[in-house]
Design a protein that fits this description.
Radius of gyration: 18 Å
Largest sheet: none
Oligomer: single chain
Number of strands: 0
């Protein structure tokens, strides 16, 4: 059971709500590997999109995720409306992570949030791409989300072995502890160079 501990403090008075505010990292691939695999298969088998075209659409979806990751983090996650309500909203959306960066159960999105966003983005992409191309594109987008969430967890709780992993960890830790208004890329820091938020 994922209950309150000194490393994962209580956020909500309700035991039920507080319980569901915590998510083990393994929930992310357990939910979204079958979902993204199913979308790729559906596009190929039921919508007649070739395997090569599906791979291309998935790569485009993955790249689209990296841009969305950057802008969500830079805008929504770091936006704090005025007043007590705004402070609470910011804390629930992202401030909790900056307050307790070592809370291993609040580093990946709870399924209630991630699945809601999955449906919203599916609707947006469906409107833009149509019923044939949306499945592979959204599969790539979802794979990008998984890479982000799992990378974020990993760099907070482990020491990467690769040079790139170590650079990502340094980049993100500087965002946490020194430069809150810079370095918004988590799994893909190139957008910080493009949009000049890398010092």
């Amino acid at each position: 059971m994922l209950r309150a501990t000194p490393d994962s403090p209580r956020m909500f008075e309700s035991d039920v709500v507080d319980f569901f505010s915590r998510t083990h990292w393994a929930v992310v691939p357990a939910v979204f590997v079958p979902v993204s695999t199913g979308m790729l298969a559906y596009g190929v088998l039921n919508r007649g999109v070739s395997v090569l075209a599906s791979v291309g659409l998935a790569v485009m979806g993955f790249v689209a995720w990296t841009l969305v990751e950057y802008w969500l983090h830079r805008t929504l996650f770091h936006w704090q409306p005025p007043g007590e309500w705004g402070e609470r909203m910011h804390f629930l959306v992202h401030g909790v992570h900056h307050t307790w960066p070592k809370d291993k159960y609040r580093l990946v999105m709870p399924p209630a949030v991630s699945l809601s966003l999955y449906v919203i983005f599916l609707g947006v992409f469906w409107g833009l791409l149509g019923d044939r191309m949306v499945w592979a594109f959204h599969a790539g987008f979802v794979i990008g989300y998984m890479v982000y969430d799992l990378t974020h967890y990993y760099i907070h709780h482990y020491n990467p072995k690769s040079a790139y992993g170590l650079r990502l960890k340094k980049h993100h830790m500087l965002h946490h502890f020194k430069e809150h208004d810079q370095r918004f890329g988590v799994s893909f820091k190139a957008w910080d160079y493009v949009f000049r938020t890398h010092p």
